[in-house]
Design brief:
single chain, mainly alpha, Growth Hormone, Chain: A, 2 domains
């Protein structure tokens, strides 16, 4: 027997958010805690057969060379990190085409397969780490994608929720650190990952009880319900389209939850919903892609050359290098605390009175300008601090890095969800992450440049990256000019209140 839920404003939506935060914090982004897990794998003798005995230059002392082992570990995390971003595109296509339930079940299957591969791996089966980490990365990203839409349940705090979920994803790197600690207490690697595999049951139950079959619409109709124990009052055709008609997808001001009549509005104020191709070819999408790619590359290269830089600044003192690496690892766990700041900035205008004819979409786009500007400014400041060869200053660099990273990914998800129709969210989010992943492959020749011709000194590379990061300011400038054009068009055409929603991105 089905039970009818009284809207989505009660306990159900808060429980959906809380369980989504736990899911993102404890499972979705665990790959980024690889630095903690690799110490365990070395201690367990994974790929130990690649360690060979060598003699020193005088031929008097035998030295164990494990560079082959390190190369395998590096290759594993490189492949998994690339797939984590690149496979977001097929993940997004799957989500848009088949809906939340199917997408989550596929993601849970991949994730559980990965954790089981980890559980049954051993030094003799070290190669299982390749599919294990890749499945965990791709499945974890699917969990994040399907959770982002939970922000639609919270109206004026939508962007805050989206950025909070992305921050939880970033902070889930702590999971592998916890596994490292419990293994030091005597728990086996197999038991840890069997427990994570068993949690797939919880993910599956949440999929049916606390998530929609297709997707959560925005704006949210008053009568909308979701989950297995609810009667869905939205028509199947409307729900399959993401809960939006053409005008609703672009911020219709209707507040009574009544679907827009597709034939009643005049043709001049009811343009057809934008196609996926139109969205991809819009300048705002292209500038967002450029900004994301540049800032992400800056972060990847900082992490890739961090050990080299610390070795140089500490004159190779192992204890100092370890101290700064520990400080860097600790700051990475604070992403869940930093990310909501960006959402609060984006949501700050939601409760204010709007000008005549100004749509909710226009207000949200204008709110994105400050968020994008702060994101670009943080990147330049972070890059400048990383460039200055001063050791104590790197503590501040670590703080700026985690704040900017939190703004980057949470802000990107919020931008795509606000600026484009919800029916294309999965595809657009996946495409922008996949293309930025391809761009990030430039990190490999850059790291080789530092280790080779630059002789371990990343100064010149950091200067070049700082200058390159200035291009990120193009996106907030482009967004600001676009909002000005919308405002001018609204003023010049004397649009009636509520009809501004039909203005959409060029």
């Amino acid at each position: 027997m089905l039970l009818t839920c009284a809207g989505t404003s009660g306990v159900r939506r808060w429980f959906t958010l809380a369980s989504g935060l736990v899911e993102c914090l404890c499972f979705a982004g665990v790959l980024f805690g690889w630095a903690s897990l690799v110490f365990v794998l070395r201690a367990e003798d994974y790929f130990s057969s690649l360690c060979v005995n060598r003699t020193d230059v005088n031929g008097t002392q035998v030295i164990i060379d494990c560079s082959g082992q390190d190369e395998q570990f590096s290759l594993i995390v490189t492949i998994a990190a690339f797939l984590n971003n690149f496979m977001t595109l097929p993940n997004g296509l799957l989500f848009d085409r088949f809906g939340t339930r199917v997408a989550r079940l596929v993601g849970i299957l991949l994730y559980t397969t990965g954790t089981l591969c980890m559980a049954f791996s051993s030094p003799a089966l070290s190669n299982l780490l390749f599919p294990a980490l890749s499945f965990i990365a791709v499945g974890g990203m699917m969990l994040l994608i399907t959770n982002i839409q939970v922000g639609n349940l919270f109206g004026s705090r939508r962007s805050t929720v989206i950025t909070l979920l992305n921050g939880a994803f970033d902070s889930s790197s702590a999971v592998f650190l916890i596994i490292k600690l419990v293994m030091e207490a005597g728990v086996s690697l197999r038991d840890c990952f069997l427990f994570m595999s068993a949690c797939g049951v919880i993910h599956t139950v949440r999929t049916f009880l606390l998530m929609p079959t297709s997707s959560i619409p925005y704006p949210l109709p008053d009568s909308y319900t979701y989950g297995l124990t609810c009667e869905n009052t939205i028509s199947p055709a409307l729900e399959a389209a993401g809960g939006h008609t053409g005008a609703q997808a672009w911020g219709d001001d209707a507040t009574d939850g009544t679907p827009v009549d597709q034939e009643s509005p005049p043709k001049e104020v009811s343009p057809p919903e934008r196609t996926f191709r139109d969205c991809v070819l819009s300048m705002l999408f292209l500038w967002q892609l450029l900004s994301l790619s540049i800032i992400q590359l800056r972060h990847y290269l900082f992490i890739g050359t961090l050990n080299i830089m610390l070795q140089r600044l500490t004159l190779g003192e192992p204890s100092l290098v370890s101290q700064y690496l520990d400080a860097f690892a600790f700051t990475q766990l604070c992403g869940v605390l930093c990310a909501p700041w960006n959402g609060l900035i984006i949501d700050r205008h939601k409760g204010k009175p709007r000008a005549a004819g100004e749509s909710e979409l226009e207000v949200e786009l204008r709110s994105l300008v400050l968020s994008q500007l702060l994101e670009s400014l943080q990147c330049v400041m972070f890059s400048l601090c990383a460039t200055i060869p001063n050791l104590p200053l790197q503590y501040f660099t670590f703080v700026l890095q985690v704040i900017n990273r939190s703004f980057l990914y949470g802000g990107n998800a919020a931008f795509v969800s606000i600026a484009f129709p919800p029916c294309h969210f999965g595809k657009l989010y996946g495409l922008i992450m996949a293309l930025s992943a391809v761009f990030s492959l430039l990190q490999f020749p850059c790291v080789l440049l530092v280790e080779g011709p630059l002789e371990g000194d990343p100064l010149y590379l950091n200067v070049a990256l700082t200058l390159l990061s200035l291009l990120a300011f193009i996106q907030p400038l482009s967004l600001y000019l676009h909002c000005r054009r919308l405002a001018d068009a609204r003023t010049n055409t004397s649009v009636a209140p509520g009809e501004g929603a039909t203005l959409f991105i060029p």
